[in-house]
Design a protein that fits this description.
This protein is an alpha+beta fold. It contains nine helices and nine strands. The strands form three sheets. It has a five-stranded mixed beta sheet, sandwiched between helices.
Length: 224
């Protein structure tokens, strides 16, 4: 599990402290730089987050709503997407029992860049690209430089069928970066997210669980 806060902290430092991400144009990576000033240095700008598309699987009218909060750089999130999520999809999402929403958490600029690539192909490609990002996490997230990381993310974008110009436009969309980060901060504050992966099931937060634990909660709600 990847924690946003040190042990004993009582609020998200990024939110309660008023920290924010600042974009300063392309650097050596060829992607928009993303920096996190200290909490005392800047206040979160007032950003309209209504343009952010929620990435959803399953029946919109399903009896249970599950929201996953995960980071593309979190190893436990990659494990969940290799083991937990496919079983949930087979047994609960595809069967109309669960409406599943995926929301990104940003620990660092690398996670933001990965999110830009995942969202670059729109709703239809989002979950497929997300799977590619998690499957390749051991490779792209541990490159020796930021430029190498971004190059690996570009490869994932091309593997998903996107053209180079489209990928570069997404990686340098500074307005999108500001909007996504403000959206993350708003959601994380609402649900008290302090580690990943976290799941909100019908409004109640749970931390990383096994499939059996997850299924027990869902079956109880379904009366099964």
């Amino acid at each position: 599990m990847k924690s946003i806060l040190p042990a004993g902290a009582v609020a998200l430092a990024m939110i309660a402290g008023g920290a924010w991400y600042m974009t300063q144009g392309s650097g050596q990576t060829g992607a928009a730089d993303v920096r996190l000033p200290g909490a005392a240095q800047a206040q979160t700008p007032d950003v309209d987050t209504s343009t952010v598309i929620e990435m959803v699987k399953g029946d919109a009218d399903a009896p249970i709503e599950v929201i996953e909060y995960a980071s593309y750089t979190c190893p436990h999130c990659a494990s969940a997407h290799a083991n937990l999520i496919p079983k949930l999809e087979e047994n609960y999402i595809d069967t109309g029992k669960v409406k599943f929403t995926y929301r990104e958490v940003y620990f660092d600029k690398v996670g933001v860049w990965a999110s830009l690539i995942a969202r670059c192909g729109g709703e239809e490609k989002f979950f497929g690209i997300t799977d590619l990002i998690y499957k390749g996490q051991q490779d792209w997230a541990r490159k020796g430089s930021e430029a190498a990381v971004v190059d690996e993310l570009r490869k994932i974008g091309r593997l998903a069928g996107m053209e180079g110009d489209q990928i570069e436009a997404c990686l340098n969309d500074t307005d999108k970066i500001a909007t996504l980060v403000a959206w993350f901060q708003k959601n994380a504050s609402e649900h008290g997210i302090n580690s990943t992966p976290s799941f909100v099931i019908d409004g109640k937060k749970y931390t990383n669980m096994s499939y059996d634990e997850f299924a027990e909660i869902l079956d109880d709600k379904l009366g099964e």
